[in-house]
Write a structure and sequence with these properties.
Radius of gyration of chain A: 17 Å
CATH topology of the domain at 22-96 in chain B: Protocatechuate 4,5-dioxygenase, Chain A
Number of helices of chain B: 10
Strand content of chain B: under 5%
Distance between the termini of chain A: 18 Å
Largest sheet of chain B: none
Largest sheet of chain A: 6 strands, mixed
CATH superfamily of the domain at 22-96 in chain B: Dioxygenase LigAB, LigA subunit
Oligomer: heterodimer
Shape of chain B: flat
Shape of chain A: globular
Number of helices of chain A: 10
CATH class of the domain at 22-96 in chain B: Mainly Alpha
Structural class of chain A: alpha/beta
Strand order of the largest sheet of chain A: 7-2-8-1-10-9
CATH architecture of the domain at 22-96 in chain B: Orthogonal Bundle
Radius of gyration of chain B: 17 Å
Number of strands of chain A: 10
Number of strands of chain B: 0
Largest interface: A-B, 47 and 55 residues
Chain lengths: 282, 136
């Protein structure tokens, strides 16, 4: 049977994509950010998962203003990097796991989480940046070392799902994975965050203290975090800090008890407090 | 589960300074504006738009306020007319600008001042939490 072995959260700042594509990794501004993922890349290279289920949000790339699916799952065999206004990113196409994704979608719907099935979509920086940060900077001719099931959650149009709903959804995702007959080792990513606001006169808001409490809670008391209201995310961490509900979706897919393997927090990454944590099931 | 109270939910955001929440009502209001922005994900459309902004906008059925805000690159104005930052990013990417460039404009600072604030740890939440209680 398939098994979830670990969870990863990371911010997915689009400026990281630009820094990689323009080869700025060694510049003073960017070097500490990429340095913060050196451990993670080694950890991932040793772990060698078969499948990554990558929870992220689409930033008006695959889904235009005509549809905002709350929970969606990519069931295609392949996903191309989206053209977000300056051409497709020069990274490899993502190899999906169509059979497993179809299994998960159906299992979750019968488990009362009504997934939107997506049979064709491009994936934007929300997905490709975390792939780069954990698997390295690959050229389009290379291949990502594992299959990827994209799992977009709406956090663009309010209300997004509550933190509790995301956490409960993680439980359902786990039940679906664990009922898949093939012996696959799966890592779940929850991406986005941490504090950032990209709009209005309050743009640039950063709340290190709150972010630190959230990181602590993610490891030790995720149920406590599910009680945070959307208005608190926005007030304390900025309008885009709401992305952290996706971290709770990842956390819900892990055991109650986890081991924190690694943590990295850095301000600033463009407009954002960059946060990253690795949790292993114990 | 307790009964969800939508109006109370939406009202809580109104007390947060300098922040427009892109809810389903605003999504309706900004639909044409946001779809125009989406069209800029295709190279031929970017070329046509760059050649003549006003002419390209005619096909998108924008309100006068939306059209004027786009032509003036009034980012806050576009958001008030239902634009969402991730859709608007297609427009400023087409112009060759970054999120940080546009964030600086919306806060009324230069990009240098804004970048410096970020390097120094970002905007402090203190005093930026509540319109009704600026001491928070």
């Amino acid at each position: 049977m398939a098994k979830i072995i670990a969870g990863v959260t990371t911010s997915h700042v689009p400026a990281i994509a630009a820094a990689i594509d323009l080869k700025k990794q060694k510049q003073d501004y960017w070097a500490p950010i990429f340095q913060g993922y050196e451990f993670s890349k080694k950890w991932m290279a040793e772990l060698k998962p078969d499948v990554v289920i990558l929870i992220y949000n689409d930033h008006a790339s695959a889904f235009d203003a005509s549809i905002f699916p709350t929970f969606a799952i990519g069931c295609a065999d392949e996903f191309l990097p989206a053209d977000e206004g300056w051409g497709r990113r020069p990274v490899p196409a993502l190899r999906g796991h169509s059979d497993m994704a179809c299994h998960i979608a159906q299992h979750m719907i019968l488990d009362e989480f009504d997934m939107t099935v997506v049979n064709k979509m491009d994936v934007d920086h929300g997905l490709t940046v975390p792939m780069n940060l954990l698997f390295g900077d690959l050229t389009p001719e290379e291949q990502w070392p594992c299959q990827v099931i994209p799992f977009p959650i709406n956090v663009v149009q309010y209300p997004p799902p509550t933190g509790k709903r995301c956490y409960d959804m993680g439980h359902a995702l786990r039940r679906a994975v664990e009922s898949y007959p093939e012996d696959l080792r799966v890592v779940v990513f929850g991406t986005g965050g941490m504090s950032h606001q990209l709009q209005g006169t309050r743009a640039g808001l950063i709340n290190r203290e709150w972010d630190t409490r959230f990181l602590n809670g993610l490891t030790q008391d995720p149920v406590g975090l599910t009680k945070i209201a959307h208005s608190e995310y926005v007030r304390e961490t900025g309008s885009e800090g709401i992305e952290m509900v996706m971290w709770l979706a990842m956390r819900g897919a892990l055991n109650e008890q986890v081991r924190e393997v690694y943590r990295f927090y850095h301000v600033p990454c463009s407009n954002t407090a960059l946060g990253h944590i690795i949790l292993e099931n114990v | 589960m307790s009964e969800p109270k939508l109006s109370a939910y939406l009202n809580e955001f109104e007390d947060i300074p300098g922040t427009l929440i892109f809810n389903t009502f605003r999504s309706r209001q900004g639909f044409n504006l946001n779809q125009f922005c989406m069209s800029l994900m295709k190279e031929p459309n970017r070329i046509a738009f760059k050649a003549d902004n006003a002419e390209y906008l005619k096909q998108w059925n924008l309100t006068d306020a939306q059209r004027d805000a786009v032509l003036a690159r009034d980012w806050t104005g576009m958001m008030k007319e239902g634009g969402n930052i991730y859709f608007l990013s297609k427009l400023f990417s087409t112009d060759g600008h970054s999120f940080q460039h546009v964030a600086a404009i919306m806060t009324g600072s230069t990009q240098e001042e804004y970048a410096k604030m970020m390097l120094e740890g970002g905007r402090n939440p203190h005093g930026n939490r509540s319109k009704s209680n600026p001491s928070l």
